[in-house]
Description:
Strand order of the largest sheet: 11-12-14-15-16-17-18-19
Number of domains: 2
CATH topology of the largest domain: TIM Barrel
CATH architecture of the largest domain: Alpha-Beta Barrel
Shape: globular
Distance between the termini: 101 Å
Number of helices: 14
Number of strands: 19
Strand content: 15-25%
CATH superfamily of the largest domain: EAL domain
Radius of gyration: 28 Å
Amino acid sequence: MRLQRPDLLFAALVLASTMAFALAGHFAAEAVIRHQQAHQLSELTEVVLRRSEFAVDFAAASLDELAKRNLASCEPAALQAIRLHVYQRSAIKDVRLVNPDGSVICSAYSETLEFDKGWVNRRDMLPSRDKALSLFRVEQFGGDALGVLRDINGSSALVAIVGINASLFDIMPAELRAHSEVILALSSGEKLGEFQTDAGKSLLEPISFDRTSTRFPLHATIGLEHAVLSSWNHEAYWPALAVALGLGAIFGILLARSRRMEGPVADLDRALAAGEFKPYYQPIFDLRTGQIKGCEILVRWLRRDGSVVPPMNFIPLAESSGRIQAMTWQILGSALAELKPLLRANKNFKMSLNVVPGHLLSAGFVETLRRKVLTARVSARQIVVEITERDELDDLARAAAVVAELRDHGFRVAIDDVGVGHSGLSRLKGLGADMIKIDKFFVDTITVDASTTTIVEMLVALARDLHMGVVAEGIETEEQLRALLASGVAEGQGYLVAPPLPFARFSELVESRRAAQSGAAVSNDAALVA
């Protein structure tokens, strides 16, 4: 019996510890799931708000274009030009010239006035952060529309009537659609649009997620029945519980916490010193011909043991710890050395480099970039600086000055993650960039969501008005490629052609594509001679 007693105590301790960790794991898993649910729903609410802001930006840019062309007039020729402008922009239903008090003088499509149930006075219109831009609800018999007013001068203003399509708000996951509602309203509380699969149905014990625009008087809300959360996204419960059971004692976690915080940063410093961060290259190609026009440099961490660390596991830490600048310069130097023969042989080939806002605005950024490119004896016009939007550009005027300086030296500038990042389209115009990159979020859904196609077409139209190029990211299927072509996108990148590749494989891909296209051209010439 004495020999069995230690075994019993050991078993009791193990059982008690297992039960304690199981209980802690249960609560931790529930907390993680709830947090993830709230995060996803907050992101969806943000998407609704961003789509709405895009619609306003689109209308404002259209009105600016009309004013620039001196078309703020009721002359027949001016109205004919406005009608053509509206016809080319399906999201806009009408453009009207109004008095300073908001009363209508004339309309591009006068018949649309018959559908108005009412028209607000200027004092009832809601101002935006841009004081010359105001929003208001246009109540019509066929459903509400959004009025976007742009002051032209002291005696008149232009108003764009923007149709609010409920399909723009059809963003909820399939398992939540029947138990949720999505609402867009003005900050005054006036509802502009709503999506609900069962119109008029009241939600049981609803919870809501809200977002208010900092640029426009717009407010987005997602309402959801509380009960549906109990079964949504619970696939993570058992993995989270398994992880909890594998954790050490709570005090051990607390004591090791400081080491865990310091260890990764020290690993980054060691990897930088050892040159373990390597450039990978993802082709940027012509959507119509398949010709590789350039590449984007993406960093990978190749450890000494041969393992590859994905960017998501070290880029956020590199940014927060201030190592991202040294990492960017190291990657650029390696990429210029590897790509130099290709860049010098093909002067139209472009190399894109990601730069975070903090690095762009840091002292000496432009001088350091010029020095590295000049040392490599590569043309500055072949280098594209992609400004990523993980952090917001707090000082837009300073950023615009840096962008202008880069362009003066021959560099090109692109804005990455357009549509889901921090910058609104009016800020894109203020930066003066050469191109925009449509985020993978839109490419993923362009073949299944009509509202995505509308947004992409709006982005392309705005880019064209601002004399900017467009590149689509994350293209994975031929169907997506065809949909992007139909929307006016000319260039893209994605796994359809190749994932990010090490230099040797990227070089082989470029050469094989060049040889194949040269062979096809020779065959076509021979056929023409025959």
